[in-house]
Design brief:
- The structure holds 2 protein chains of 2 kinds.
- The radius of gyration of chain A is 26 Å and the shape is flat.
- Chain A is 74% helix and 4% strand.
- Chain B is α/β, with parallel strands linked by helices.
- Chain B contains 19 helices and 14 strands.
- In chain B, the strands form 4 sheets. In chain B, strands 1, 2, 3, 6, 11, 12 and 13 form a 7-stranded mixed sheet that branches.
- Chain B starts with a helix and ends with a strand.
- The N terminus of chain B is likely disordered.
- The chains are: A mainly alpha, B alpha/beta.
- At the A-B interface, strand 1, strand 2, helix 5, helix 11 and helix 12 of A face helix 2, helix 4, helix 5, helix 12 and helix 18 of B.
Chain lengths: 305, 459
C-alpha cells in the first residue's frame, strides 16, 4: 500500500532528519579536517626546476613523512619524556584528587564548600598563566623558594635540571589538575545512595573501612574516566613545557611530541611532516585509550557493558 | 612562540632616538617571554588587500612589520610623511610577530591567495621564502634607488642577481660590556677570542658569582657569524648547488672554543632575555654580550638603571689584525608574489630602506639604518642611551661596518638548522658533551633536508 510505504519511509527518515545537523557539523569540522590532515601527511615540498634557489612545490611523497616521524630521534625522545612525566604526574594527580574527594565526603566535615572551591580554583587558571606563575617560582633570581633555601644554606635549588624538571612540570599539572579530577570523583561519590553507608555503619565499619571497601570500588568508573583523560592530556602535553621553554635551556623546542609537531608545521614549513607526526600521535592515543578501557572495563563496569 | 622571544632577540630595534626619549617598556623582554609562551595564540592579522588594482587610483598597502608599530609616534610620522608625498597611497600597519611567525603567516596567506603588500623579515629568513615562491622579484622596481645602499648590504637580499627585498637595518657586530666592572676586576677589553677566554677566566676568579657572558644555544646566527669570522661558510652556493660548511674544520674550531668555555664554567649556560638573564644583567652578574650594534637598546630595555656603565667595542677577532666580520641580524622589506599592488609596495619599501629621506627617518625608530644617508646621519647622533658617555659609539660602529667584509649567505632551510642546532647544543651544554658532534649533527640535518627537497649538495 502506497500510504503505508510512504509512512514507513517517513518513519525511517525521521531519525536521520533529526541527526542531520549533527552529521553535517561532524563532517565539516571533524571528518574533513582529519581527512585533510591525512592527505597532507602524504605530501611534501620538493623542488621544481634546478638551481640553488629552485622553487619548492607540493608533491606526493608516499610514506616518507611517516618514515621520517618514526625515525626522528627527537620525536621518539619526546614520547619518552612524556612517558616519564606521565608516570609521575598521573598517579599523583589522581591520588590527591581521590584523597581530597574522600576527605570532603566525610560526614559533618567543616568548610566543605569553601575547601571544594579552593581546591578547584587553580583549574580556572589557564595553563599558560599557571606555567608562567610556576616558572617565575622556579627561576633562581625570582624564586622565593630558592631565596629561602639559600638563607637556610641548603644550596641553590635547580628546578630546571634533570630529573627535577619532570617533577617541576608534574607539580604544575598537580596544582591545576587536582581540582578538576576531584570534582568528578566527588560528584560520583555523592551519587552513591547513603543507605549503603548506613548499612555498613550498622555492621560496625569505620569511616576508613567505608572509604576503602565501599566508596573507592563504587567510584571506580569515575577513576577510570579521569585516568583516561589524564593519559590523553599527558600525551597532548604542550603549553606547560612550551611556556617554560624560553626560561631555561633544559626544555628544548622539541621537548614533547606536540612541540615537535608545532615546530615542523610553523617553523620548518613542513606541514606534511607535522601532519604525519600528528596522525601517529593520534593513533597512539587511540590505541592506548582502547587498551586502557578494555583493561578496566570488566573490572569496573561489570560484565554487562 | 617560544620562538618569538628569540625572534625579538635577533632583531631588536637598535638606535636610541636622537630626540627626547620615549617612554620605554622596560618589561619588553618579559613580555617577549610571555608572548613566546602563549605561542598558541596565533593572532590573525588583517591580510586583506583592499582597493582596486588600477594604477594611479587610490591604493591601500597592507604592511607587516615589527619596527613600524601602530601607536608609535615616530612610526606614525614616517607613515604620514609618505602618505603626504603619495596622496593615492594609504598604509595599514600590522604587527604579526618576529621572522618565524611572519614567515609562517606569509606562507599561509600566500596559500589563501590573500597576501599583504610589504612584509618585514630578517635576512636569514628570506631565502626560505624565496624558494617557497612567495616573494616577488623587485629588481626592476628598486633599480633607481640602488645607489642608496652599499652593494655588500644589497647582497643580503640578492640571490642569483635578483633582488627580493629592500634592506632596512643592519647589525654591525660588537661586544657590549660593563665598562665599570671590567675596570673593577682589572680586565682588559678582549680584542681576540683568546683574550676573551682569558678575561672570562679572570672574571670568574675575581668573583665566582659573576660571568663574562651567558651562553645561549638559541643564538644560531651568532654562532654562524662566529664561525664565519673564523673562515667558515655555513651555507654557500654557486648558483646551482649548495655547499654546507657547518662541520668544516674552521667551523668546528669555533665549536671547540665554546665547548672549552662551557666545560670550564667560564660562561653561564642561560638563554637570553629570560627573567633570569635580565636579573643577572641588572645585578652586574653578566658582564657582556657579543652581538651587534642593536644590543645596547635591548640591554637598555631590560636594565635601564645600568645606563652609563656600558660601552661597545668591535667584536674580538680570531687572528690579531684581521677585523673582518659578517653582519648579525637586521631585516628587510619584501613584496609578496601575490601582492595586488606590487608596484606601489616596492616603491614604498624602497623609499623606507634606500631613499635618503627614509633611511634617515629609520634613526627615529631606534634602528641602525642600512641606507647610506641614514648611516651618515648616525655619525652626528648622540650615542645610545645605554652608553651616553661613549661619545665615539657610532664612529666605532661605522668602522665595524667598514670591516664587515664577510658575506652572510643564508640557505633555504635555516629553520631546520636552527632547531637541530639549538636543541643539540642545549643538551651538549648541559651534559658537557662534545660540541663538535652538535655541529656535525646540524650539518647532517641540513644536508639531509636539502637533499630531501631535491637540491644538489656538493662537498
Amino acid at each position: 500500500m502506497p500510504t503505508s510505504t510512504g509512512r514507513r519511509i517517513r518513519a525511517a527518515a525521521t531519525p536521520w532528519l533529526f541527526a542531520t545537523p549533527a552529521i553535517v557539523f561532524f563532517t565539516l569540522f571533524l571528518i574533513i579536517p582529519i581527512g585533510y590532515a591525512i592527505y597532507l601527511s602524504f605530501r611534501g615540498f620538493r623542488i621544481h626546476g634546478g638551481g640553488a634557489f629552485g622553487r619548492r612545490v607540493q608533491a606526493f611523497v608516499g610514506f616518507d613523512n611517516y618514515l621520517a616521524a618514526l625515525t626522528d630521534p627527537e620525536y621518539v625522545a619526546g614520547l619518552g619524556r612524556v612517558l616519564i612525566y606521565g608516570v609521575i604526574a598521573i598517579p599523583s594527580v589522581l591520588g590527591l584528587a581521590l584523597l581530597f574527594a574522600l576527605l570532603l565526603d566525610i560526614p559533618r566535615v567543616r568548610a566543605q564548600g569553601f575547601s571544594r572551591t579552593a581546591i578547584f580554583l587553580p583549574y580556572a587558571v589557564p595553563g599558560v598563566i599557571a606555567s608562567l606563575l610556576w616558572g617565575f617560582l622556579y627561576l633562581p633570581s625570582t624564586s622565593p623558594i630558592t631565596y629561602l633555601a639559600e638563607r637556610l644554606h641548603t644550596g641553590p635549588l635547580d628546578f630546571f635540571g634533570y630529573p627535577a624538571l619532570y617533577f617541576s612540570l608534574a607539580n604544575i599539572a598537580l596544582w591545576s589538575g587536582v581540582g578538576f579530577n576531584m570534582i568528578i570523583i566527588f560528584t560520583s561519590l555523592r551519587a552513591i545512595p547513603t543507605s549503603i553507608y548506613e548499612a555498613a555503619r550498622i555492621d560496625g565499619a569505620s569511616e576508613l573501612q567505608i572509604a576503602w571497601r565501599i566508596k573507592i570500588p563504587l567510584v571506580a568508573p569515575a577513576l577510570v574516566l579521569t585516568g583516561l583523560f589524564s593519559v590523553i592530556g599527558t600525551l597532548q602535553l604542550y603549553s606547560e613545557p612550551a611556556t617554560l621553554h624560553p626560561m631555561t635551556a633544559t626544555v628544548t623546542t622539541t621537548w614533547v611530541p606536540l612541540m615537535k609537531i608545532y615546530e615542523e608545521a610553523f617553523k620548518n614549513d613542513n606541514l606534511g611532516g607535522a601532519a604525519a607526526a600528528s596522525v601517529v600521535l593520534a593513533l597512539g592515543i587511540l590505541v592506548i585509550s582502547l587498551l586502557l578501557l578494555r583493561l578496566f572495563q570488566r573490572r569496573t563496569f561489570g560484565d554487562n557493558v | 612562540m617560544h620562538h618569538l622571544s628569540q625572534e625579538i632577540v635577533m632583531t631588536p630595534p637598535t638606535l636610541p632616538p636622537p630626540g627626547p626619549r620615549r617612554l620605554r617598556t622596560t618589561v619588553r623582554a618579559m613580555l617577549a617571554v610571555a608572548l613566546a609562551a602563549s605561542l598558541a595564540a596565533c593572532s590573525s592579522a588583517g591580510t586583506s588587500s583592499s582597493g582596486n588594482a588600477t594604477t594611479g587610483g587610490p591604493v591601500t598597502l597592507q604592511v607587516w612589520t615589527w619596527n613600524l608599530k601602530n601607536g608609535n609616534p615616530a612610526a606614525k610620522a614616517i607613515i604620514d610623511k609618505y602618505q603626504q608625498e603619495h596622496p593615492n597611497v594609504t598604509i595599514k600597519l600590522s604587527e604579526v610577530g618576529g621572522t618565524a611567525d611572519t614567515a609562517a603567516k606569509l606562507l599561509a596567506a600566500d596559500q589563501a591567495g590573500d597576501t599583504p603588500d610589504v612584509v618585514q623579515v630578517e635576512y636569514r629568513g628570506l631565502p626560505a621564502l624565496v624558494v617557497a615562491g612567495v616573494v616577488k622579484d623587485i629588481t626592476a622596481d628598486v633599480a633607481a634607488l640602488k645607489s642608496g645602499i652599499e652593494p655588500n648590504i644589497w647582497a643580503l637580499t640578492t640571490f642569483n642577481n635578483q633582488v627580493y627585498g629592500v634592506p632596512q637595518d643592519i647589525g654591525p657586530m660588537m661586544l657590549t660590556y660593563r665598562k665599570d666592572l671590567f675596570d673593577k676586576y682589572g680586565v682588559k677589553v678582549p680584542t681576540t677570542w683568546a683574550e676573551y677566554a682569558e678575561a672570562a677566566e679572570q672574571i670568574r676568579k675575581k668573583d665566582p658569582s659573576v660571568y663574562i657572558a651567558s651562553f645561549s644555544p638559541s643564538q644560531l646566527e651568532f654562532f654562524a657569524a662566529h664561525a664565519a669570522q673564523a673562515g667558515a661558510q655555513w651555507w654557500s652556493n654557486d648558483g646551482n648547488a649548495w655547499k654546507v660548511g657547518i662541520d668544516s674544520e674552521a667551523s668546528l674550531k669555533t665549536a671547540d672554543f665554546w665547548e672549552d668555555l662551557v666545560k670550564r664554567d667560564l660562561v653561564k649556560v642561560e638563554p637570553l632575555l629570560t627573567p633570569e638573564w635580565n636579573a643577572q644583567v641588572n645585578d652586574g652578574k653578566l658582564l657582556s654580550w657579543a652581538a651587534a650594534a642593536w644590543a645596547p637598546s635591548v640591554i637598555h630595555s631590560v636594565a635601564p638603571d645600568t645606563a652609563g656603565k656600558w660601552e661597545s667595542a668591535p667584536l674580538p677577532q680570531w687572528t690579531p689584525g684581521n677585523p673582518a666580520v659578517p653582519f648579525q641580524g637586521g631585516s628587510t622589506y619584501l613584496v609578496p608574489a601575490k601582492s595586488k599592488h606590487a608596484k606601489e609596495a616596492a616603491a614604498f619599501a624602497a623609499w623606507l630602506g634606500a631613499s635618503d629621506e627614509g633611511s634617515k627617518l629609520m634613526l627615529t625608530l631606534d634602528i641602525y639604518p642600512g641606507g647610506n644617508a641614514g648611516r651618515q646621519a648616525t655619525l652626528s647622533s648622540e650615542p645610545p642611551q645605554l652608553m651616553p658617555q661613549q661619545k665615539d659609539f657610532y664612529q666605532v660602529a661605522d668602522q665595524v661596518i667598514k670591516n664587515t667584509t664577510i658575506p652572510a649567505t643564508w640557505g633555504p632551510n635555516v629553520n631546520v638548522a636552527q632547531s637541530a642546532f639549538e636543541n643539540a647544543l642545549n643538551t651538549a651544554a648541559l651534559n658537557k658533551s662534545s660540541f663538535r658532534e652538535v655541529y656535525r649533527a646540524t650539518q647532517q640535518a641540513v644536508v639531509a633536508d636539502l637533499q630531501k627537497s631535491g637540491y644538489t649538495v656538493i662537498k
